[in-house]
Amino acid sequence: MHQLWDFAGVDGLQVAKVWFGEAIDRIAPFQSIDTQLNDQPCAVLRLCENNFRMAWASSDSFPRSVPPNQQIWLRQFDWLGTIVLPDSTSAQLAAIATPSHPTAFPCRSTAPPPLESTDYRF
Amino acid sequence: MRLETLPKVADLPAPLGQVVAEYWIAPGTAIAYTVQAGEYIQILDVAGSQCSDFLAFSGTDHAEELDGTATRTLNGLAIPQAGLLGKYFSQRLQPLFEVIQDTCGRHDSFLLACTAKYYEDAGYPGHPSCSENFNRVLEPYGIAPRSGWAAINFFFNTEVDCSGAIAAAESWSRPGDYVLLRANRDLLCASSACPDDIDNANGWRPTPIQVRIYSAEESFERAIGRRATPDSPVRLTQASAFTTAIQTLTDDLTEYNGFWVANRFTHHGIQAEYWALRERVALMDLSALRKFEITGVDALSLLQWTFSRDVAKLAIGQSVYGCLLNPHGGMVDDGIVFCLGEQHYRYVGNCDSNLSWLQKVARQRSLSVTLRPSSHEWHNLALQGPLSRGILRSIADLDQGTIDDLGYFRFAVGKIQDVPVLISRTGYTGELGYELFVHPDRGAELWRLLMQAGKPFELSPLGMLALDRARIEAGLLAAGREFDDLTSPYQAGISWAVALKKPDFIGKAALEQIKLRPPFVAVGLVLEGNEVASHGQAVYPVGDRWRIGKVTSATFSPILNRSIAMAQVAPEFAQLGTEVEVGLMDGMKRRVRATVGTLAAYDPTKSRVKA
User: Would you call A95 an interface residue with chain B, using a CB distance cutoff of 8 Å?
Assistant: First the structure.
């Protein structure tokens, strides 16, 4: 069971570094890292410079509080969930992905939903 | 009499490919026509300065139509540009067509096609309008008339200014300028030759528009047309020798200085590319730089007269960074002069127009010198990062010496395996690095060899977004940001690149005066907090309302973990440690405290590039 938690704000990257270390600033938007939160697996997806989404494999209450003086919000969206797709869908996803995915759709990547029939290829 | 002269069909530029249909739109009229998915639509301004408003409807469902607001929103642009952000969308957010080529670059997506009301309000009741013309030609397709059509108005020169006003003026298009569109689906289209003769939108004289439809079998390269000088022919965006290889690694290409360059690379991204540069090594295509050969007995004299540095001090195999100057001390361009021989220099800069400028100066001074553009003979890669020397050590064979002997701002010829190259120890990143110049015929091979040799070093390709972050950290100038031809080197932050001891040179008298008190001087700023400033934002004294300068470039520095900026401020506020404020938004709602520092926030002593 995964819990999805989002945080965002002008200090989002700084909070992400506090919680997950410097590695979080080595990934680009729509890439993720696998890490741990309270000894439970946690995938952290970067959505832009300062916005992040965590998929935390725990049903516990969220174990971190926002550091003082950091301007972010931390919340769960009750309308946002996850589904697991089999690996065999990867090739299909490549065809619909954003411009930054010309050949494949690798692990720890994601893409926003495409516009129907939109070909982003250059 | 001139007003009655209209161009003939014979004056039109040749077709780009196989024409399957062709339409001539008489001045002040409109037509409707259908195209099939994949076909190309060329809308050609026959005589220049003529607007052509455009509508498109899905061919299967006319209720789905071109939507300018959706198009602006999805692209983040006032008008789509050939390239990644070139699609025009419907109100259902689906792409209808894409701009493939554009030789004008200025169109309108904000205003209605001209309406009867517009002319009535201006005192011309009954004047024909594009909207009425569209109503007439679309009626047979069952499309209901509208008082005003929200069209895309090709060649219509409008601009939203900082006050929010939408200014309209004479079109930028010249005779033969065109937009080339590709239909993403079957379309019903309508095009006009705007009848507006009551203002300067069409240069007071409506003229015809030509529409050509090309077969879907054709394949036209995406390109933006630009002119280097007022008299130059249009030059379409080019691929470099490395572009084909780069396109296997990313689709995120952007037009930069007439070439397609990568913004960022798939599976890397700005952060990974940046850190590869700072910690390991990165490879980038910088072929968009322009190269000129300057030869002859007066080659040195020409450069001494036009370039800011003392070129006479250069030994063969040495290069120097500086700028070309105009008579009032403004920077025409910045670049590097390479000394290849006693009478042979190469200038590597940013502008095609440098050639005509240097030729003009040579003529004026009766100098015996030959100037020849060589950009087509030299494409170049930047191999930058602390491990760059290690890669070259493993594969570069220099004609004289070794890569370890190659000093800062020195260059040598040699080979990478059997590919002839000129290797220069220069760069634009603030790291140890090299630039490799190669004939385009061997470029793809050089890219492959470097990528292969770089694998053990975890070499990453580098895009423009990461490069911009790195160059701001290193305090390196960008044309259009830190300088233009109204900016002196003293203001731009390269006073050290002005050799005032030279007997004389263009702009010297002005620079001697400017040096005494430049109106602004370049500084680095370190901002409090994590918000990033942007180009053009004002800098203020702490607690006061008047401006003391402006931000020229800004970024978040990953390695410093600080928000930084390059700025130009009044000299009274340029001392290191001075506290200032950067005005965000309107400059009043929020100001962020910043501290004046060195222009290069990262490695200001340049220890890394000199390592």
Answer: no
The residues of B whose Cβ lies within 8 A of any Cβ of A are 74, 83-84, 87, 93-95, 184-185, 222, 247-253, 264-272, 275, 529-531, 556, 558, 561
Where is B138: in which H helix or E strand?
A: helix B130-138
d(C-alpha B285, C-alpha B308), whole Å = 27
Residue of A nearest to B93 (CA): A115
Q: Quote the tokens at residue B12.
A: 């039109």
- Chain B residues with CB-CB distance to A121 below 8 A: 251
pLDDT, residue A99, reads 46
Are residues B268 and A28, on separate chains, in Cβ contact within 8 Å?
Answer: yes
| Helix axes of B299-306 and B353-364: crossing angle, nearest 10 degrees | 110
A44 min Cα distance to partner chain B (Å): 15
List of E strands, chain A: 3-8, 32-37, 40-46, 52-56, 73-75
Chain B interface mutation, best of A33, A108, A115, A116, highest count of B Cβ atoms under 10 Å: A115
Residue of A nearest to B273 (CA): A26
Per the CB < 8 A criterion, the answer to whether B527 and B580 are in contact is no
Query: How many Å apart are CA B600 and CA B430, to the nearest integer?
Result: 9
Please work out, in degrees rounded to the nearest 5, the angle formed at the alpha carbon of residue B199 by the alpha carbons of B198 and B201.
Answer: 125
Residues of chain B falling short of pLDDT 50: 1-5
B195-212 per-residue burial string, b: 16 or more CB within 10 A, e: under 16:
bbbeeebbbebbbbbbbb
Distance between CA atoms of B268 and B274, rounded to whole angstroms?
Answer: 9
List chain A residues with CB under 8 Å of B272. 26-28
CA nearest to B375, candidates B351, B342, B396: B351
CB-based burial label for B88 (10 Å; 0-12, 13-18, 19+): buried
Quickly state the pLDDT bin for A13 (edges 50, 70, 90).
Answer: very high
Q: How far is A45 from chain B (nearest CA, A)?
A: 14
The single-letter DSSP state of residue B235 is: E
What distance in Å separates the CA atoms of residue B150 and residue B250, rounded to the nearest whole number?
A: 35
**Parallel/antiparallel/unpaired status of strands B370-373 and B538-541:** unpaired
Cα gap A53→A98, rounded to integer Å: 19
pLDDT in tens, B555-584: 999 999 999 999 999 999 999 999 999 999
> Nearest-CA neighbor of B64 among B99, B94, B40?
B94
Report the 10 Å Cβ neighbour count for B543: 8
Interface predicted TM-score (ipTM) of this complex, two decimals: 0.85
Q: How far is CA B368 from CA B2, B281, B301, B307, B355, in A?
A: 44, 43, 9, 17, 15
Residue showing tokens 């080659």: B299
Q: Which residue's entry shows tokens 């409807």?
A: B57
* Cβ contact, residue pair A102, B266, below 8 Å: yes
